Amino acid sequence: MDKQLSFEESATISHQSEHIAISDDTVKRRATIKDYFRLIKPGIIYSNSLATLAGFWVASGWDINWILLFYTLIGTAFVMASGTVINNYLDRDMDAKMERTAKRALPSGLMTPATVMTFGIILGVIGIAILAFGTTHVAALLGVLGFVLYVGLYTAWFKRTSVWSTFVGAFSGAVPPVIGFCAVETTDAIGALILFGFMFLWQPPHFWALGIRRREDYAAAGFPLLPVVKGVEVTKHAMMRYVVLLVPVSILLSVFGYVGKIYLIGATVLGLIWVYQCFKGFSTKDDMKWAKGNFMFSINYLMILLILMIIDTVHKGS
Questions:
Q1: Cα–Cα distance between 218 and 228 in angstroms, integer?
Q2: What integer is the mean pLDDT of 289-294?
Q3: Rounded to whole angstroms, how far apart are CA atoms 127 and 100?
Q4: 208-218: buried (b, 16+ CB within 10 Å) or exposed (e) per residue?
Q5: What's the CA angle centered on 158, arms 154 and 162, to 5 degrees?
Q6: Percent of the chain having pLDDT more than 70?
Q7: Among 95, 137, 167, 282, which one has the highest count of C-beta atoms within 10 angstroms of its own C-beta?
Q8: Domains of the chain: residue spans and CATH
């Protein structure tokens, strides 16, 4: 009997020690500025800020209003950050089921949902105010539209219910360069539409490549992503369709005289390389390796072409 009591006491002490250790760890992991920074998904903000800059530069034709550019970039970044933070709030239950996202601030318990939502709202209000008072009303309305599409239509609805989620999400993802363009030029619909089409067509094949790599993770979380619902082969065909369309749309900026021959050559060559990369997917024996290569190429493709847009923008006076 004494031995049994001794065992139970030891177990109790062990449990209490474990509880204290967990509590201590929680204290040590109080949210920091870095944790708040991670909430905004900085990689998304960086790439979309470059897209905003490219749109602004194309519309300006090298006649840059630096103060207007500052307000445009900061305002758009705040609106995008608001969307990504509230995305974290809405996806917290599904993020907890995915290995890639389980350690985020909300699933891990590092922050409360109320804190994250408040942070997201503050960012959004600041961003829209900066766009409204520092740029043009068209740019501000586009900021609101992009936010509503991303948070309300994509994250809260389609992302959880439909295989069309990536298509719907591409609408909001295509808004940043248009905001940049319309912060300068509010009457030129052609340039805005070309930039929108370029970013819209780039997104699905980019994201589906990641979806193939993380297929099991997305399935476990309950995301009805195309590779999960329809399979890898169907997804490869869908990727090919978007990339093939992207090539002629990307060169329209040169056709309509917004950018020069350097961009035209870059868009054509890189576009055809991406088409070839997608085509190779139909004969590959390693879907994961192919998807990783395709995903990385899509990132480099976008970065290079956005930079070429800026470098090779045609001067308005020329």
A1: 7
A2: 97
A3: 29
A4: bbbbbbbbebb
A5: 150
A6: 90
A7: 95
A8: 35-311 (1.10.600)
Q: Between the CA of residue 44 and those of 38, 121, 196, what are the distances in Å?
A: 11, 18, 17
Q: At what angle do helices 175-182 and 189-213 cross, to 10 degrees?
A: 160
Amino acid at 248: P
Burial 300-312 (b: 16+ CB within 10 A, else e): ebbeebbebbbeb
C-beta separation of 40 from 79 below 8 A: no
174: its two tokens: 């295509």
The length of the chain, given as a count of residues: 318
Structure tokens at 27: 């204290």
Q: What whole-number distance in Å separates Cα of residue 75 and Cα of residue 72?
A: 5
d(C-alpha 98, C-alpha 223), whole Å? 10
Is the CA virtual torsion 198, 216, 148, 108 positive or negative? negative
User: How far is residue 106's CA from residue 113's CA, in Å, rounded to a whole number?
Assistant: 7
Report whether pLDDT(39) > 80: yes
pLDDT band, very low/low/confident/very high, at 60 (cuts 50, 70, 90): very high
